[in-house]
Amino acid sequence: MYGPQYFDYKFTYTQTFLWSDPFFRSQKGILGHLLGGWQIAPIFTARSGAPEPVYTLNSNESFGETQTGGTLDGAVLGAKFTGGNTAVYNINVPDSPTGAGINGNAANGGNNINMFSNPVAVFNQFRPCILGYDTSCGSSGQIRGLSQWNVDLNIAKDFNLFRERVAGTLSFQFVNVFNHVILRDPYLDISDPNDFGVLGSNNPNGPPGGQVNTPRQLTFSLRLRF
Q1: Would you kindly state where each structural domain of the chain is located, as residue ranges?
Q2: How many CA atoms lie within 13 A of 131 on its CB side?
Q3: Predicted structure pTM score
């Protein structure tokens, strides 16, 4: 189990901003009440890809291994890794890693978005771990999944009523304000070549549809102060 673990992100980044309207702070007149008191506060987060496991044949067991359950026991790169970790569209995965598929049909696990531009070539670079021969079969993966980014946003307005005897704050909170879709990393198993590298919907550990984050959500609130 030595090697990169599931929580091993090489780079994480978070940045917050706050912009306050400086032009109508006094909020005098109709125009001042409409345009004054606004604040915009976005939160930007990003991270590099997580370790991506590539599972082996025979329920994740190494050749010659017994009574271990195959925990974090991954496939081994038998050739130089030439794949990437970005979403590539309109990629068809053949039913066979060495052929054009059964009757020419492709099995894409529900979509044609793949982490590899040539999933067949990447599939052929992996092989099962051989106990006593290989020394780096463990960890959560020796390749990396997709990087991720997201922007949340809060827009708020302070206002005064009844000659400043009543104050309030109107707030609009957006989660995933750009409605940016983050697909779950693929479920990579060399005993399941039909959807090797397919992003999102082929991962049995993921939500339906394969989207990791939530679609855009808006929460509205009004707070009054006496």
Answers
A1: 12-225
A2: 10
A3: 0.74
